[in-house]
């Protein structure tokens, strides 16, 4: 990296707002990719001759690579430099997307998705830690995190709209090719605009045992939940994956406590506020990921919406998230303690979920879905914004990459758990409902109605569990996160793990 790409520590970067545009663009690309591919999957499966049994690997290959390598990616950002890692991640993601769009068979598709995951694991922590070290003023940071939080939360729903348009009016391949202009613009902008503060590198030798244990452990954990969704929780391989993940991750913690230069310094996760953020955010993502899936199925299969109409149906949630992040969260973050935004935010989201437990086959969009999604988005946006800003609060600059990666990891693992756990609950409730009611259906139309009612019963059963999970996330946020407001004094006990009180105008953020 050239000398012009480095700025003196303690001096606000004059180009920081321009840099935010390109960092946010990269974040939007990664978040979009998570949902945009789901919309295109049926068309891609048919074109490439992918079997029903193998189609899950289009999603799973990405999830395993991304989730397994996040901690390693965060450490690489601290070691190589965040700007360099960010640009490399964007370039690699663009190449992998081009391969996915040009795929001629299932092996090429699965390989491109895994490659996207590898470069995404470099890109995401680097983006967050760049934002952390570039915005040092509490009020400015609140605005930056509000914008970033809105994208992190609402980008997935935008992906549904864009995916619907591209698949319906162009071709499924464009759901991959669309990443290329995003990546090129973000990489070029980052190269010329971003100047990384001096003294933030962690040049300690790489903790190879830590990389090995964390990557295998996280891959086993994510794959265990993914497999549980399709094969069941009692499947021998599923159970083996969970046991293996537990052993590997426990070994990882023991190694990190002893090595001189750990991949994940335990001080990053044992500090009370950060631990509370990682845990509550992971739980909220469990609830939200499952809901995205169920609402997409409900709108398309039960209500008969087209992919494009389904995407537009999610707009109230996006509007709520943007309002919660950029208006409520940003305006209040410098005035109240983070827990007073996170706790109530998760509870408002839970109320939104409560609306959605009332779904029936003929439910009115305006009466139930609209207010439910609006409240869900508003609550999540309000809670995500301070949660992300707290993610690396008090962390030394040399640890900011790996601390950012921890938030990405909690979200990625939360997403895998949410999809598998809530899908299992839904499938079980659907099967039970149909078994109990199909006997009374004498005509074909009545049987089809029972099938649809069974699906909706499954969705609402899973959404009830999501309500409970969000309530637990709120309790954790209110009890664990006890830091004072940014720019104010820290609440007793909110110091860092090494006993030094943290100044609050030093937080960070995550995907």
UniProtKB/TrEMBL annotation:
This is MFS transporter. It comes from the Bacteria. It comes from Streptomyces lancefieldiae. It is found in: Cell membrane. InterPro entries: EmrB-like, MFS, MFS_dom, MFS_trans_sf, Sugar_transporter_CS. The chain crosses the membrane at residues 20-41, 56-73, 85-103, 115-135, 147-166, 172-194, 206-225, 237-255, 276-299, 311-328, 340-359, 365-388, 462-481. Keywords: Antibiotic resistance, Cell membrane, Membrane, Transmembrane, Transmembrane helix, Transport. The keyword Transmembrane helix applies. PANTHER family: BLR6921 PROTEIN, MAJOR FACILITATOR SUPERFAMILY MULTIDRUG TRANSPORTER MFSC. Residues 19-485 form the Major facilitator superfamily (MFS) profile domain. Gene3D superfamilies: MFS general substrate transporter like domains, Multidrug resistance protein D. It is a multi-pass membrane protein. Pfam families: MFS_1 (PF07690).
């Amino acid at each position: 990296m050239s000398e012009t790409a480095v700025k003196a520590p303690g001096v606000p970067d004059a180009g920081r707002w321009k840099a935010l545009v390109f960092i946010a663009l990269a974040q939007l690309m990664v978040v979009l990719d998570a949902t945009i591919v789901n919309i295109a999957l049926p068309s891609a499966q048919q074109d490439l001759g992918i079997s029903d049994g193998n189609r899950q690997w289009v999603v799973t290959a990405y999830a395993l690579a991304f989730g397994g390598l996040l901690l390693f990616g965060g450490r690489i950002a601290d070691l190589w430099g965040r700007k360099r890692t960010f640009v490399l991640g964007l370039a690699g993601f663009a190449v992998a997307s081009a391969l996915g769009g040009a795929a001629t068979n299932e092996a090429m598709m699965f390989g491109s998705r895994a490659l996207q995951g590898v470069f995404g694991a470099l890109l995401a922590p680097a983006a967050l830690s760049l934002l952390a070290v570039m915005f040092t003023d509490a009020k400015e940071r609140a605005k930056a995190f509000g914008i970033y939080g809105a994208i992190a939360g609402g980008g997935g729903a935008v992906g549904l709209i864009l995916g619907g348009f591209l698949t319906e009016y162009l071709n499924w391949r464009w759901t991959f090719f669309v990443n290329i202009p995003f990546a090129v613009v973000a990489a070029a902008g980052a190269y010329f605009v971003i100047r990384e503060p001096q003294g933030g590198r962690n040049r300690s030798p790489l903790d190879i045992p830590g990389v090995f244990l964390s990557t295998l452990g996280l891959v086993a954990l994510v794959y265990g939940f993914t497999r549980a969704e399709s094969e069941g929780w009692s499947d021998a391989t599923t159970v083996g994956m969970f046991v293996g993940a537990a052993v590997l991750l426990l070994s990882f913690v023991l190694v990190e406590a002893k090595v001189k230069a750990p991949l994940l310094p335990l001080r990053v996760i044992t500090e009370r506020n950060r631990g509370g953020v990682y845990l509550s955010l992971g739980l909220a993502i469990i609830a939200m990921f499952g809901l995205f899936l169920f609402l997409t199925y409900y709108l398309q299969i039960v209500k008969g919406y087209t992919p494009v109409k389904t995407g537009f149906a999610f707009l109230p949630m996006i509007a709520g998230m943007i309002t919660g992040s950029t208006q409520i969260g940003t305006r209040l973050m410098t005035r109240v303690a983070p827990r007073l935004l996170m706790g109530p935010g998760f509870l408002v989201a839970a109320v939104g979920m409560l609306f959605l437990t009332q779904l029936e086959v003929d439910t009115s969009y305006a009466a139930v879905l609209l207010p439910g999604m609006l409240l869900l988005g508003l609550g999540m946006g309000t809670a995500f914004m301070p949660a992300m800003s707290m993610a690396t609060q008090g962390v030394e600059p040399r640890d900011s990459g790996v601390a950012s990666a921890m938030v990405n990891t909690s979200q990625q693992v939360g997403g895998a758990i949410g999809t598998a756990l809530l899908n299992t609950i839904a499938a079980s409730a659907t099967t039970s409902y149909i078994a109990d009611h199909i006997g009374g259906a004498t005509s074909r139309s009545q049987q089809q109605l029972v099938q649809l009612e069974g699906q909706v019963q499954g969705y609402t059963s899973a959404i009830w569990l999501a309500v409970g999970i969000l309530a637990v996330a709120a309790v954790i946020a209110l009890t664990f996160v006890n830091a004072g407001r940014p720019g104010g004094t820290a609440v007793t006990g909110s110091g860092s793990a090494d006993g030094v009180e943290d100044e609050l105008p030093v937080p960070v953020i995550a995907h």
